[in-house]
Amino acid sequence: MMVPDVFNERQRRDNQGIRMRSTFFTRRSLLAAAAFSLTAFLPLAEALAAPFESSRITVRTEGSGPDVILIPGLNSSPRAWASTVAALPGYRYHLVQVSGFAGQPIGGNKEGNVAAPVADEIARYIKEAGLKQPAVIGHSMGGTMGMMLAARYPDALSRLMVVDMVPYLGTFFAGPGAPAEKVEAVANATMAGIRNATPEQRSANTSATIAGMVNTESMRAGAIADSAASDLDVSSRAYRELIVTNLIPELGKITKPVTVLYVQPKSVPIPAEQFDYVYKSAYAPVKSLTLKRIPDSAHFIMWDQPQRFQSEVKAFLAAP
Known about the structure:
CATH architecture of the largest domain: 3-Layer(aba) Sandwich
Shape: globular
Strand order of the largest sheet: 1-3-2-4-5-6-7
Oligomer: single chain
Distance between the termini: 90 Å
Order of helices and strands: HEEHEHEHEHHHHHEHEHH
Mean pLDDT: 88
Strand content: 5-15%
CATH topology of the largest domain: Rossmann fold
Helix content: 40-55%
CATH class of the largest domain: Alpha Beta
Radius of gyration: 29 Å
């Protein structure tokens, strides 16, 4: 009877050991499986993360490659960049649309300034989208927002291109050296004129303005449509803001290279050298600056001189 008792006890202990080892390996396997699952599904979790939300802008992307942010101007839409994006593949373009312009709902731009808070939103977009210092190109008012971004968030971008915009419009509206109160008075009068115009007057003014900004007749209809679909209140406030905003004192804070493409409007009949000096003086505080005059073009350079514009953008994006 002793032998079976010893055998049974030994068997019982062996079975207990097997169960303990089995439990140990089962737990370890579960932990390993869980860790693998988290790693395997991390890209999926990131893909399902909440998209960027803003009441002031929307952003859509096209293409793949290095990141480039494109900011349109006053009353404009991403249609301004369509030919450029098509001609220069190999980049992931982030096309910004400002709320209240070109038919987009007013959203968060229902009161106050427009350009400055939109520049803040673009900086937030860069951060939340995980972009690593994208290149930024801004046309007109988009150039103003690009300068704000570069001066106030210098580490957010790698380089900036400003398309036909000065850092202080007040000089053009109120005259060189005009005091701030005079510039503000001119800006207020300009805003009032926009708001008080009849629908017929606004339509005529829009057509005349676009004709002066776009030499290529076939491209005017799109610009007119975007302008007509823009909210009058948002547009007039943004225009006023552009006139009174003086970014020259902030340009020294920009640490990244800046390229400025500009044209001389037909409405400014002064010697070319004198007009060039205006741009050189205005942008003088920028540490790394490239100024390029584009001949035979109006304000929308990308439409009037598409090949030249695309060549400049290509060189700008390829720069180290």
